[in-house]
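Figure S4 source data
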Amino acid sequence: MQPHETIRRALRAANEAGRVGLVPFLTAGYPEADRFKDDLATIAAVADVVEVGVPFSDPMADGMTIQRSSRGALEQGVSLGWIFDRLEEARGGIDAPVILMSYLNPLLAHGYERVASRALAAGVAGFIVPDLPWEESEEFGAPLAEAGLALVQLVTPATPDARLSRLCSASRGFVYAVTMRGITGGESALPADTSAYLDRVRGASALPVCAGFGIRTAEQVAEVGRHADGVIVGSALVEVLERGDDPAAFLESLVSAPG
């Protein structure tokens, strides 16, 4: 089985068990770089797929929480190479598929072929690159495809139907449905048309659809879970880690409430 297929399989297994797939996000090396492997193992134990953020100096799709976490990780010397090293050390102890969320610059600086080979050695199953348009993704996508790694495509409520179909066909692992116009970490309620939007994305995709941006409560997880195959929880989890609270207990609380 190719690495990208492990993502789809994990999410489908969650759905077959009668629950929405859980995809938590943490910024690598934050809040404490020397705890990254422990935090990752704790979170992976209750997750279906784990999204690991590569810290970047200008995370344009992210709100204040993840911007703060990126800065904090960079100040501790966390880099893409450091993350690959830590993931190689942790390999075998992490059961959930791991996806890296990175902006393009760190990948470009590392070298696309080298990224693909190191990711494969580190047990990474795929990548999310929010500032890489599908039309410009071939140079990075080709070495990933050769290694069997996913390049997850993002869609938004503003994506036209024809483009939605193309992006869903091009994606691997799952389709990332951004729930709102704007940046991560919003405090407000999800838009009123979220359910209809997610139904539209699911209708266009043969892969699982995971919804992210602004999801932080059990009620939101339950509502979104009726219209998506997975939920991505980022800023709220980063804040839990900042406070020193138990991330596993927090994640379990999101899916334990009746939906």
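Figure S5 source data
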Amino acid sequence: MSLHAKRRLIALAAILTVLVVPLWIVSASASKKLRSARMSTGVRTILRGERASEETARQNRAIATLLKTTPSVRELPAAGREVALSFDDGPSPYTEEIIDILVDRHVPATFFPVGVAIDEHPETIRREARDGFAIGDHTVHHPRMSELPAGEQEAEVDGQAADLRRDGAPPPHLFRPPFGVYDQDTLKILRRRGMLMVLWTVETDDYELPGQEAIAAHVLEAVTPGAIVLMHDGGGDRSETVAALPEIIAELRRRGYRLVTVPQLVLDAERASRLG
């Protein structure tokens, strides 16, 4: 090989070194940053899960504390400008639409499903639990509890709790009696299980299909600080409820209300009472 050819090869090698080495360094750096980002994301996810678990534990302790003084709640004005939206009788295909709206707008809420509907839509209960919504017990068959003997009432409560656990929801600490009907046997059953009966401040009558404007107006006219709002995500045509929900959320926020789950409402009322 001539001296000229050798010099050309040496020059070419030098050029390649100049081009390739920085690329390798950039690539290695980018790979390291990507691994770091993935690790950070994983850590953030874990920490979010830990914080969520800690907050849930605090909420459950607040429920247990409240049960020492009352077996049920309709509203918790001590919580201040907070409102808890709740949905009964699901899950149904409308539940998925409601969850989509809530998730898109970052709105916590509380669901009270019934066992017979869970059997048809178990994946929806799993989604409710996965997305962090509060889930309470609403019986298996939606009976009027006061019309049942104590043993059958127990079966309704315990059967629904088992359905929820089977499909990935935590053990329920809340109970809503169908039709708002209960008796002393119901209260004894709930007391033994450490469950708070959750009634409501605002009844939307959405099951009567009055129209989305009427549903929204009913909520917005009747709501007060610490209110619990009753709507339905199952048991029939709930398209009007789905249509009314975005307006309800937007207007409540415009008025300065914070939207929370029922357990969060209980915890915040307890915190406010301690501070007051």
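Residues 15-47 have pLDDT under 50 and may be disordered. The chain is about 60% helix and 10% strand.
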